[in-house]
Write a structure and sequence with these properties.
Blueprint (H helix, E strand, L loop, with lengths): L5 H28 L3 H30 L8 H30 L1
Length: 105
């Protein structure tokens, strides 16, 4: 693995931040289930911040490619994009689950 490859570096940043967001969401759901809505909200904001960081890394690559930079196909980057897309979807469901916990408690 070429650590100087910008595509690999971006992929790792996307995976790192998306994974952190997933952990934040899981913790937020647990906090909401215990009635700690303020902490759940804070964790969801942290999750969103991590998603934003991952999305920024992805967007830089896309913008570079639109500007003429070419990249060799990279399965790691494809995996990173898939991970980000999944985590973004999980964010929506996590928000709804937290709302549900809040109503039930």
């Amino acid at each position: 693995m070429d650590k100087n490859n910008p595509l690999i570096n971006s992929a790792m940043q996307i995976i790192l931040h998306a994974g952190d967001a997933r952990n934040n969401m899981s913790d937020a759901i647990s906090e909401a289930a215990q009635g700690n809505t303020r902490k759940a909200d804070e964790l969801m904001q942290t999750a969103q911040d991590n998603i934003n960081k991952a999305h920024e890394a992805q967007t830089k690559i896309i913008q570079n490619e639109m500007a003429g930079q070419t990249y060799e196909p990279c399965i790691l980057f494809t995996h990173a994009q898939d991970t980000l897309m999944t985590v973004m979807s999980e964010m929506k469901f996590s928000s709804e689950l937290i709302k549900l916990h809040t109503k039930l408690l």
